Amino acid sequence: ARNGYLLNYACNIYYGINIVGPSNAEPLPQPPCPAMYQLDIVLKKGKNLAIRDRTGTSDPYVKFKIAGKEVFRSKTIHKNLNPVWDERVSLLVETLREPLYVKVFDYDFGLQDDFMGSAYLYLESLETLDVTLDLKDPQYPDNNLGTLELAVTLTPKEGDVRDAVRNLFKLF
C-alpha cells in the first residue's frame, strides 16, 4: 500500500497536481504515470520542396527538435526537390507538452545552410499516424514550401514504482 501511495504521489508531482491535505471528495481517477513516451518516426519523403540553389534544385536535410534541443538530423539528399529519406528514429520523450519541431535546410558546402521550411507536430493527441506536414516560413506564411511525409507512433512507457520513487527523490 505504501508503494502505491508513493507512486500516486510521484505521479501527482509529475503531472503538476498539488494535494494539500486529506479530502472527503471522491478520488479522481489517476491517469497512468508513464516515466516517458517512445516516439517512433519514419521520415519518408519530401514533395515539391523549395528551390534554394542556382541550379534550380536543393540539397535538403531535415532536423527534429524538442524543447529547443536537436534530437535528429537526416542524411542530405543532393540535387532533389522530391527526396526520399526512409530514415527511422526512436526518441524517448518526457512530456507531450512540447511539440516536435521539424525544420528543412538546403546544405551548402562551406556556407551557411539555407532554410527551406518548418512545421510543428503536436504530440498530445498522437498515437499512430501517417502525417503530412505543410512546410512554412514564419516570416512568409502564405508561401507554399512543399510537404514532408512521416509515419509516427507514440507509445507510453510505463515506469514501475522504483522509477517513480527515484524520480521523486531527485526533486528534493
Automatic annotation (TrEMBL):
Write the record's keywords in alphabetical order, separated by commas.
Calcium, Metal-binding
Cellular component per GO?
Answer: synaptic vesicle membrane
Q: State one molecular function term (GO).
A: calcium ion binding
Q: Which InterPro entries does the entry link to?
A: C2_dom (IPR000008), C2_domain_sf (IPR035892)
Record bears the keyword Secreted: no
Q: Which is a GO BP term held by this UniProt record?
A: regulation of neurotransmitter secretion
Q: Quote the SMART domains the UniProt record gives.
A: C2
Among Pfam families, the record links this protein to:
C2 (PF00168)
Instruction: List, for all copies, the residue spans of the domain called C2.
Output: 19-137
Similarity comment: Belongs to the MCTP family.
**Protein name (database record):** Multiple C2 domains, transmembrane 1a
Give the encoding gene's name: mctp1a
